[in-house]
Amino acid sequence: MNIVVCIKQVPNTIDVRIDPVSKNLDRTNITGVINPFDKNAIEEAIRLRDKHGGEITVISMGPPQTIDALREALAMGCDHARLLSCREMAGADTLATGYVLSKAVNKIGAVDMVLFGSHAVDADTGQTGPIVAEFLDFRQITFVSQIDMEGNHVTAERMLEEGRERVRSKLPVVMTVTKHLNTPRYSKPVNIMKAFRKDIPIWNYEDLGCDINMIGIPGSPTIVTEIFEPKRRSEVEMIQGSPEEMVKELVAKLTADHAI
Amino acid sequence: MIADLNKNKGCIMLFEFTDEQKMIQKMVKEFTKNEIKPLDMEMDRNGFNDELWKKIKENGLLGIPLPEEYGGAGGNAVTGALALREISRGSASVAVTLDAHWLATDIVFHHGTREQKEKYLHKASEDSIFAFALTEPSAGSDAAGIQSSAEFDGTHWVLNGTKAWITNGGISDLYIILAKTDEKKSTKGISAFLVEAETPGFSVGKKEDKMGIRGSMTSELIMNNIKLTKESLLGKVGDGFKIAMMALDGARISISAIALGLSEAAREIAVDYAIQRTAFGRPIAQHQSVQNMIANMDIGIRNTELMMFDTARMKDLEKRHTKEAAMLKIYSSETTMQTCKDAIQILGGNGYSRDYHVERYLRDAKIFEIGEGTSEILRMLVGSMSLNK
Ligand SMILES: Cc1cc2nc3c(=O)[nH]c(=O)nc-3n(C[C@H](O)[C@H](O)[C@H](O)COP(=O)(O)OP(=O)(O)OC[C@H]3O[C@@H](n4cnc5c(N)ncnc54)[C@H](O)[C@@H]3O)c2cc1C
Ligand SMILES: Cc1cc2nc3c(=O)[nH]c(=O)nc-3n(C[C@H](O)[C@H](O)[C@H](O)COP(=O)(O)OP(=O)(O)OC[C@H]3O[C@@H](n4cnc5c(N)ncnc54)[C@H](O)[C@@H]3O)c2cc1C
User: Is residue B20 annotated as a catalytic residue, yes or no?
Assistant: First the structure.
């Protein structure tokens, strides 16, 4: 079974600066890490490969330094990595990103499963996986918390707000995964050394056969009109009395606020 | 860090870490934070933690400095120092256990035959802990005075004697044991042997109830007429002392990395506390005496770091570093003692409590002035090398 894992490099810090002019995230001087949920996707891919055979290719679209994230994915145990990068791809929204990723999946070829994180912790739309599924015309299962394989079928459990749902699908399939799926492994030092000897080819839009009008800024219909920090409103109210009285009053207030 | 000083300014190159080293360091840091550090206090009370060591083995930390052909990560002295420093920020006990293992594996790697390396080093990278046994109840600093004996009976080496204070004694699968093969000779009468834990007649004696690094195991070893094949001799007959001293030069870099990590852990607690705790209307960090202690910590930490990476670099370039390693070890151990002691002082009464870690750190720190050559012995070594140029 051949698996592609799509990973995004996200900023390591929570205090991300937003470029006031372009309204985009200012990515200079921020060290990148693999989006945490994408690590769950990598972990699951490795477990599935080790059990059912096949190869894992990890891909990411992003600026050149994204190669560090790909290197780390190799160190965790992925077989191949491809960086999708060129000037023309810059400024992409989820649609343009999804388009490029789907082109890469097609170029890799004979792919049975494409795994994504449920969402990226920075831009956080959760749209990329489903968009790729549409471009590829693959079945899709989102918010996956458990995966079982049976021949060329997959049974997945979805984590929904109100409960869990079991879904069965034929391959090929796109899945977006949650942190409940597994615990990602550490990269063993010996595998880190091996990862640095692997070649990570860079594919530009021509290599992928992309339509120039569907990538980067021209391919991104999303218009970010404004980005702002939500205003913090905090009111502190001190409750007085004996412990019993205070608990009673607190419970009453929380109930009134629909907090519990 | 330090490398940035030099970029394009025509300055001399100091230290530049490779991308591989940086990624290994990052991995070890993360592993330490999640898996090791949370257990250090518990290990101080209950000793060596098998579950944790299972994880350490599974995640390939045993083999960091061993070549890839033996399943290791091909790291060098610099990589080893980076890793031990990170681990020691979480637990000096765990770092010391690994240091003793690496000391022993380093000896097998440098002095073992092809067969010995094939037989033992794969295991050393994967799941076997090794130990190095020189000290005896009646001979520590005076290593030439050991009394354990090895006699060749025509087919086998027969070993008798007792070793004391052996780190990893009781948890190791392989012991490097130094014994006298010629009573008449001093240092040249000592040879090194590879002794497997299951060898008949070999047993583990008293487990030491230590002041610090209580999460590491330290035991007595007893050899009662144990029989070893010819292939168990490591290096040539009479080379044991030389082999041990060479290995200790390297191990003193490792020990200093551990002392450094411990200093940094104590400093972090002290600084956080000094900023938060107020006395006489302001954070204690604003009182000059407290600042002086922090300043001294930083001076010690930075000096240790510079000396340590420089000595590690010498080892990696295969330059003799006996004197440098001795100076480094004296400095790093005395720095960490002072740093941990001052950290307690900054925390006041809380520093004296077991809940705030720094009292444990001070108990841990004391070993570095004793193990792998006491400060007195090492000062003698440095002094004599300085004067006998
Ligand atoms: C040159 C260049 C510059 C870029 N600059 C920016 C920028 O400034 N800001 C920005 O947010 N993005 C940037 N991107 C990346 C791209 O625009 C975003 O990744 C995309 O908009 C995804 O949106 P999201 O974060 O909401 O992802 P979500 O839809 O929330 O992510 C869900 C999952 O999709 C996958 N995924 C998401 N993005 C990628 C990706 N790029 N490659 C592979 N898999 C992915 C991951 O598995 C992730 O867990 C840049 C890309 C390039 C080539
Ligand atoms: C926790 C722990 C772990 C250890 N692990 C190991 C191990 O894995 N393998 C191993 O082989 N050993 C190990 N040791 C032993 C350690 O190396 C010795 O304790 C150390 O070398 C000192 O030897 P000693 O204890 O016999 O002290 P002694 O040699 O008896 O020294 C006692 C004191 O006298 C001083 N002294 C001795 N001679 C002189 C002199 N000529 N001039 C001035 N002062 C002198 C010493 O500096 C010291 O202060 C360990 C010890 C400890 C505490």
Answer: no
C-alpha B368 – ligand 2 centre gap (Å): 11
Q: Answer yes or no: is the C-beta of B140 below 6 A from any ligand 2 atom.
A: yes
Domain end residue (candidates: B114, B129, B144): B129
Substitution target in A193, A197, A198 with the highest count of B β-carbons within 10 Å is A193
* Residues with Cβ within 8 Å of residue B249, at least 6 apart in sequence: B315, B320, B321, B322, B325
Question: How many domains would you assign to chain B?
Answer: 3
The answer to whether A189 contacts B30, with C-beta atoms less than 8 Å apart, is: no
> The domain spanning residue A35 has which CATH number?
3.40.50.620
Does B70 share its domain with B140?
no
Residue nearest to atom 37 of ligand 2 (CA): B141
DSSP alpha helix (H) spans, chain A: 36-52, 67-76, 94-108, 128-136, 189-195, 243-256
Nearest to A190 among B19, B31, B73 (CB): B73
Å between A75 CA and nearest CA of chain B: 9
- Report whether B368 contacts B258 (CB < 8 A): yes
DSSP state of B181: S
Residues B180 and B110 in one domain: no
Same domain, B295 and B373: yes
Ligand nearest to the CA of A128: 1
Ligand located closest to A19 CA = 1
Residues B247, B210 share a domain: no
CATH code where residue B40 lies? 1.10.540.10
Q: Which of B79, B109, B129 is the last residue of a domain?
A: B129
Are B156 and B229 in contact by the 8 Å Cβ rule? The answer is yes
Taking the Cβ of residue A191 and every Cβ of chain B, the question of whether any pair is shorter than 8 Å is answered with: yes
**pLDDT tens by residue, chain A, 260 residues:** 999 999 999 988 655 667 777 777 676 666 789 999 999 999 999 999 999 999 999 999 999 999 999 999 999 999 999 999 999 999 999 999 999 999 999 999 999 999 999 999 988 899 999 999 999 999 999 999 999 999 999 999 999 988 999 999 999 999 999 999 999 999 999 999 999 999 999 999 999 999 999 999 999 999 888 877 777 777 888 899 999 999 999 999 999 988 88
Give ipTM to 2 decimals.
0.90
Give per-residue pLDDT as tens, B325-341. 999 999 999 999 999 99
Give the residue on A whose Cα is nearest the Cα of B35.
A186
Q: Contact B59/A186, CB-based, under 8 Å? A: yes
A18: contact with B, CB 8 A cutoff = no
Rounded CA-CA distance A67/A64 in Å is 6
